[in-house]
Amino acid sequence: MTGIAPGGWLGLLGGGQLGRMFCHAAQSLGYKVVVLDPVAGGPAASVAERHIAADYLDAKGLAELASSALAATTEFENVPAAALDFLANTVRVAPAAASVAIAQDRISEKTFLRGHGFGVAPFAVLRTDADFATLPGDLFPGIVKSARLGYDGKGQVTVTNSGEARAAWRALGHAPCVLEQRVALACEISVVVARDARGTLATWPAAENRHRDGILDVSIAPARVSETLASAAREIATGVVGALGYCGVLCVELFVTRDGALLVNEIAPRPHNSGHYTIDACVTSQFEQQVRVLAGLPLGDTRQHTPAVMVNLLGDVWFANPAATVPREPDWNAVLRHPAAKLHLYGKAQPRRARKMGHVTCLGATLDDALATARAIRRDLGITGTV
Ligand code: ATP
Ligand code: MG
Question: Which ligand is nearest to the CA of 180?
């Protein structure tokens, strides 16, 4: 396969912060990026060389993207598979629509993973009233999750019996759902992996993830788990991309159960929030790797050179207290006074509570140093919860 040389145009579907960081990495390598995003002035569109404001299924917009770029990728998990298929008629597309389609639907995702021998939490599929008659009791307490379009814990309801599960399913509009056993967790980790068109693999060190209200709060890298567990997690990640015949960057979110087992929670067919630490702490970031795979360049070194703690900055930081209704700009000196803290803001105009507005990666000579910086920054920005 011939590569696309720096200077060429790359296409991107979706315009959020993952796309913005893809643009930065592509531009640093000398590429130009054309973004297709229905919204104007979004995080990616505002830094890309060109923005096509069109719906993901708009034939004219897609044709324009295909005629101006040599290859296309996505930063948005829920981009319709049909859009990727359409583009694949004329340009190189990575990841392929078929891979993205599996990850877009929890039913197909879990069925695929289980079918290929990867451990997942016990689950049942909820599609019709009849499905509630046969629910195994060991799924409770459990979580009803809508099969499609969930993110940051949205579309999820905790239930303790079949009646509650049915009520949750109804409340989610009778849409197809999964009921998943609530697993007793020791911790959560994730592995970002890249696979190129020749099947070459590269994984980054596992990150240890803390969530708050279903949203990623902090990622600690490398994860504080045994070497055996960390390499087992990396093997699962390479196994998953191998089974998918995947081309691109993908994240595998894993549960470490109290009895030490690894279960795949979900897969994201794109760079991931828990991999943001790779920008500042690794030789090659997840975004540069996405560019490299898309352009057909050799993969970059994924080695981590510095311990890192990534702190998400949600819109809440823009509000002085929980009762405040009017946002104000945070005092960034709280971050900038730490020489090894790297501030990343996504350029979103409207700070809203629970909205991902940016992140800070705290570097340190040791993980404890990085954690100490993260704690100081969180305290000064008014972020509650211990790390
Ligand atoms: P995102 O796309 O932001 O990762 P999501 O909406 O897809 O989130 P999940 O990853 O399914 O949601 O769940 C969010 C978090 O809720 C998990 O990271 C975990 O902390 C918790 N959680 C989800 N499912 C389970 C489960 N079966 N057992 C225990 N905890 C769970
Ligand atoms: Mg998740």
Answer: 1
Shortest-distance ligand to the CA of residue 154: 1
Choose the residue to mutate in 107, 146, 265, 355 for probing ligand 1, maximizing ligand atoms within 8 Å of C-beta: 265
Asked if residue 6 has a cis previous peptide bond (ω within 30° of 0), the answer is: no
* Mean pLDDT in consecutive groups of 10 residues from the start of the chain, 387 residues: 91 98 98 97 97 97 98 93 96 97 97 98 97 95 92 83 96 94 98 98 98 95 98 98 98 97 97 99 99 98 99 98 96 98 97 97 98 98 95
Ligand 2 centroid from CA 272, angstroms: 10
Measure 148 CA to ligand 1 centroid, in angstroms.
Answer: 14
